[in-house]
């Protein structure tokens, strides 16, 4: 009888412990602790998990390629030689120190000796070189980074000394080494047999604080703490991304408790953000400007090749009202291509204002007249009709596109707007298959160097869109000199001249300064916006009891 009662009691305790573990979402114990099968006094603790939304699949997690892999997820797994802190400071990371030769061509990095990949293998100069070799097999894919096209060779000098040798001095090299892709490091086990990662990776093995441990395309991705991480461990055990393309659906999921936070740019409408901000059950934060939202006018389009048409379109919509109305004042109207918190930012002294009558007059001067009884201007029998492409999941850009469509109709311009999937949008942009396009400069740590680099460097869309500017050749020369000069005063002058020219030509139209937003459940604390625009913010997060 005693044995039967004992068995019954043990069974009841076991069932109770399982029930409590299932009902609890947070626990002060570390993830992965397992109760002994024979120990009924110790239940398996629930992991400290947060669930976030993302508008699209996180992708195959290849550190050396671009879309569809998502930057925020890549940054959780893969790490750089150096890191970028807010304000532009470059600090040691996988490299604990470095020296630069007097001629500015050789960067010698001393690598940390306690770093392991998530599979337990060692990070050293040999695997660092293997990663750079994989990237350099396809330099044409990475030429938007200035130092890539100037890279002469890399050297594994000894086990923990890694050299990068350039063909000529290039001042933004350290800054560009901190970017999320393509110069972060994959472990040996992730490389395909031929070493060519452009075709894919075997598995996403990195040195970062997180590992991809579960994944279902277009549904979810789960990242778990890396037990071999060399640095400070995150304060939570797991981050789950739920793929939710629609902004309104994200808000509903958050309000129902299915999400712990909503984070990013354009993740939800500004109206929704303001409503959640007013709810005492949640906390919200807004970052400082991370980039400039710009409208790119493709000068290879016959109508847009005319400066008068470009300036007319700028003056034909009320930018202040649009930004204020759509972003509820959370974003600032931009009159300069770089916000003031970026190095070398140039403030435009005479931004173009809203003036419908002047816009109409400029179109008349350009030969685009409004025939009697018609609503669209014509020239040589052709209507003034252009297309604007944008990413359809962005909750801010869509209403901006619709606003432009309505306001330009009032000056006799027909605007067709096309919301596209991100991959298709980028494909068309790089191929020059667009008239107008919503773009942003890259933000920290890329700018301003990467932004002015793609003004001159073809294959990334901007240089091609500016091709018919009469000053394009001179602009390209200024960009080249700004990136390679070792004279700081000369560099400042060149950056100012480049930005002034772009402003005057009107093919890149600053719209607003983009800010990241986050909405959090009260149980989350310790959230901090990262110094780099596309880095992840999860390692500092804590879950309150």
What does this structure look like?
There is one protein chain. The chain is an alpha+beta fold. The chain has two domains: 43-287 and 516-545, D-Maltodextrin-Binding Protein, domain 2; 291-514, Roll (Dipeptide-binding Protein, domain 3). The chain is 29% helix and 21% strand. The chain is built from 16 helices and 23 strands. The protein has a six-stranded mixed β-sheet with strand order 14-20-13-19-17-18. A four-stranded mixed β-sheet has the order 1-10-9-8, with no helix packed on it. Strands 4-5-7-6 form a four-stranded antiparallel β-sheet. Strand 8 (210-216) and strand 9 (220-225) form a beta hairpin. Helix 8 (307-315) runs antiparallel to helix 10, helix 13 packs antiparallel against helix 15 (472-484) and helix 15 runs antiparallel to helix 16 (488-505). The longest helix is centred in the N-terminal third of the chain and has 22 residues, at 2-23. The relative contact order is 0.14. Mean pLDDT is 89; it is low at 1-44.
- Output the number of helix runs: 16
Instruction: Just give the CATH class of the largest domain.
Output: Alpha Beta
**Tally of domains:** 2
What profile does the largest beta sheet have?
A: 6 strands, mixed
DSSP E strands, number = 23
CATH superfamily of the largest domain: Periplasmic binding protein-like II
Distance between the amino and carboxyl termini: 42 Å
Oligomer: single chain
Helicity level, as a percent range?
A: 25-40%
CATH architecture of the largest domain: 3-Layer(aba) Sandwich
Which runs of at least 5 residues are low in confidence (pLDDT < 50)?
1-44
Query: Into which percentage range does the β-strand content fall?
Result: 15-25%
């Amino acid at each position: 009888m005693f044995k039967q009662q004992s068995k019954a009691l043990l069974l009841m305790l076991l069932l109770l412990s399982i029930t409590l573990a299932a009902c609890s979402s947070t626990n002060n114990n570390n993830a992965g602790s397992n109760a002994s099968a024979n120990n009924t006094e110790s239940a398996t603790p629930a992991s400290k998990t947060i669930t976030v939304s993302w508008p699209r699949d996180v992708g195959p997690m290849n550190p050396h390629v671009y879309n569809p892999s998502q930057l925020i997820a890549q940054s959780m797994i893969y790490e750089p030689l150096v890191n970028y802190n807010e304000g532009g400071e470059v600090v040691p990371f996988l490299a604990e120190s470095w020296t630069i030769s007097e001629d500015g061509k050789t960067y010698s990095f001393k690598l940390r000796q306690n770093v392991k990949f998530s599979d337990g293998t060692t990070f050293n100069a040999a695997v660092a070189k293997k990663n750079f070799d994989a990237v350099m097999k396809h330099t044409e894919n990475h030429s938007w980074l200035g130092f890539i096209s100037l890279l002469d060779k890399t050297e594994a000098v000894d086990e923990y000394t890694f050299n990068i040798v350039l063909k000529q001095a290039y001042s933004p090299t350290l800054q560009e080494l901190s970017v999320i892709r393509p110069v972060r490091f994959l472990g040996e086990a992730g490389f395909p047999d031929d070493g060519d990662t452009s075709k894919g990776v075997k598995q996403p093995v990195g040195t970062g604080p997180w590992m991809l441990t579960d994944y279902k395309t277009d549904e979810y991705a789960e990242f778990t703490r890396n037990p071999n991480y060399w640095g400070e461990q995150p304060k939570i055990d797991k981050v789950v991304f739920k793929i939710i393309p629609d902004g309104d659906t994200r808000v509903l999921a958050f309000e129902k408790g299915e999400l712990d936070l909503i984070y990013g740019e354009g993740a939800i409408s500004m109206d929704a953000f303001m409503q959640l901000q007013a709810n005492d059950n949640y906390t919200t934060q807004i970052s400082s400007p991370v980039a400039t939202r710009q409208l790119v006018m493709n000068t290879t389009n016959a109508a847009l090749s005319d400066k008068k048409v470009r300036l007319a379109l700028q003056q034909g919509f009320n930018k202040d009202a649009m930004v204020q109305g759509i972003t509820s004042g959370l974003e600032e109207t931009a009159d300069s291509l770089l916000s003031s918190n970026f190095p070398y930012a140039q403030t435009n002294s005479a931004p173009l204002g809203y003036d419908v009558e002047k816009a109409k007059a400029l179109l008349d001067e350009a030969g685009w007249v409004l025939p009697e009884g018609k609503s669209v201007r014509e020239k040589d029998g052709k209507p003034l009709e252009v297309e604007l492409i944008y990413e359809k999941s962005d909750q801010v850009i869509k209403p901006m596109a619709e606003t432009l469509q309505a306001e330009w109709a009032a000056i006799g311009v027909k605007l067709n707007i096309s919301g596209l999937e991100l991959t298709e949008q980028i494909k068309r942009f790089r191929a020059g298959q667009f008239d107008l396009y919503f773009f942003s400069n890259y933000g920290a740590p890329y700018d301003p160097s990467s932004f002015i680099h793609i003004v001159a460097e073809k294959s990334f869309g901007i240089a091609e869109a500016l091709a018919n500017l009469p000053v394009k050749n001179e602009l390209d020369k200024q960009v080249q000199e700004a990136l390679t000069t070792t004279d700081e005063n000369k560099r400042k002058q060149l950056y100012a001249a480049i930005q002034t020219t772009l402003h005057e030509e009107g093919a890149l139209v600053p719209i607003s300064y983009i800010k990241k937003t986050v909405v959090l459940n009260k149980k989350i604390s310790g959230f901090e916006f990262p110094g780099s625009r596309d880095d992840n913010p999860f390692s500092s997060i804590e879950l309150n009891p």
